[in-house]
Amino acid sequence: MKMLFKQRFFSWLDSYDIYGEDGRTLYTVKGKMAWGHCLEVYDASGAHIATLKEEVLTWMPRFRMYLGGVHVGDIKKEFTFFKPSFVLECNGWKVAGNFLEWDYEITEDNGSAIAWVSKQFFNFTDTYSIEVANQEHALMSLMIVLAIDAAKCSGGNA
After folding, report:
1. Where is 140: in which H helix or E strand?
2. Distance CA 50, CA 140 (A)
3. Contact 27, 139 (CB under 8 A)
4. Which sign does the torsion angle of CA 48, 54, 55, 61 carry?
5. Which residue has the higher pLDDT, 5 or 66?
6. Percent of the chain that is helix, strand, coil (3-state, to 5)
7. How many other C-beta atoms can be found within 10 angstroms of the C-beta atom of residue 63?
8. Alpha carbon distance 103, 145 (integer Å)
9. Chain-centre distance of CA 134, in angstroms?
10. Which domain of life is it from (predicted)?
11. Is the N end or the C end of the chain the one with fewer CB atoms within 10 Å?
12. Residue 33 and residue 93: Cα distance in Å, rounded?
């Protein structure tokens, strides 16, 4: 399953639309006024299904992920000099990115691929392509991409 994650051009707060391969809207993400990033995810029918909240007063960006109001995991950026590093505390998954922070792979502990993420260039807004091996992992993969994008913004290197 492939998804296109596209930030809206005119928006005071973070706002994204996520499209399927056929061009239909799968998810909508809306930023809320809060201390730190707070993003709410809605399904195609407009039902709130997930929330991503940045913890404030931390040295490096850290985000808590909620599905249906239940805390399901955290993702935090680690301090490194050259290669970006994120620690994912969720489902036994791992995330690794390349040197320029544009491409990511989400895997299980055993190395099985969950999703591949790549940033598309030459767009006015942040646009990512997300390819998910199993459709049931689409929402969690999206939450991870949202957290990484927000962490890059918090770190001043978006």
Report:
1. helix 138-154
2. 9
3. yes
4. positive
5. 66
6. 15, 45, 40
7. 27
8. 10
9. 17
10. Bacteria
11. C
12. 30
